[in-house]
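note to self — DONT lose this again. spent like an hour looking for the file last time. sequence + predicted structure for the chain T wanted, 451 res
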Amino acid sequence: MSSDLLDLEPLTQRAADLVAAAQKAGADGADAVAARALSRQAEVRNGALEEMEHAESDVLGLRVFVGKRSAIVSTGEGDGGDWAALAQRAVAMANAAPEDAYAGLADAGDTGIAADDLDLLDGDMPQLPALTETARACEDALLGIDGVTKSGGASASYGLSGVVLVTSAGFSGGYLRSRRTLFASAIAGEGTGMQRDYGYHMTLHGEDLDSAEEIGRLAGERAVVRLNPDKMPTGTGTVVFSPRVAWGLMNNFASAVNGAAIARGTSMLKDKMDAQVFARGITIDDDPLRRRGLASRPFDGDGLAARPLTLVEDGVLQTWLLDCATARELGLASTAHAVRGAGSPPSPGSSNLTLRPGPQSPEELIASIDDGVYVTELIGRGANTITGDYSRGAAGFRIEGGKQTVPVAEITIAGNLHDMFARLVPANDLTYRYTANAPTVAIEGMTIAGR
């Protein structure tokens, strides 16, 4: 399948045949998603090969509409699939489903494909022996750091996927995306005093990936500096989120502005359109057309051409993330932010969500803090985007008198997202390493629970 994966034409034909079968079976409308994927991964631990994996998959999904009723079926069968039987089953399921006043395909006049060259594909597919050597180099680098006592494992992987969407309204489009990943975990210290940390990087192109030596070294150094952590006294202070955890705040925000949550009335921001949610000067945007972006795409799950979207401007909430169905329910226009899998309907989702940087460096932000904590790790899922309540286990470094000092662990940081968003101050060190990105962020007035 490896060479076939680079050709989207068979996938397109398969999806088109499935849509045609649905219409023949009595569907008023239909769309089909066809996807193929290849992944290769090699993992080593303490010098030994732990795992080597090569996986390939095919999946087809069909969504049919009978009036305002709909149903979805999916299959892992390839060319030998019985499309007529699958389509008949989907139509029968739709006839038995409850009506949904907002269900339906995107209007043909609204669909399209962005013309931008997103450069999502690196066709240089490394073989498993090469990935194994990369993982070994990663582990050798972390084991070479003074104070590292053992490896928690290192891995290198490559992924390649192709996806096609075809609708009975006339839309047909597809794209390919590759991914390269490096991960290393290091353990420092002995016994109950051991500390663990990691290095990680994912890109679409191999040439953009940090070197194995850099990822391994980073994992080792991060683990060593966490040795002999202290506990902070319980109180109120400023929490500084490092970039590798600050992106999680953007995911909390994305959940709160998801059109489905707004339509259900289950978002803390449901009444905040055009309101000052963040401080002045704060901008948050979403750009599915970023070149080589991890979540970039030329069209969304409804078949609408992808386009950039400003969600927050000068601290004011401008819009929700909307797909066609939630837009209809809210009486708005879709923002072309539908995401979907082959076996699931479209739903709103972000793509390359970004908190824009501020003017100060992280060092300047920290220098202005008398008492606080610089957080490098968050534990648990303690963010409630219905009420805004936020409470997470954390580890990092104490901030005292404007300086980052001793490592701290077993602390809890807590607040409310309404207040946290309003007080959020971004630094100027934005880099694009995740599907949601943020620079270093400082938030004053949070509760820090320790000893």
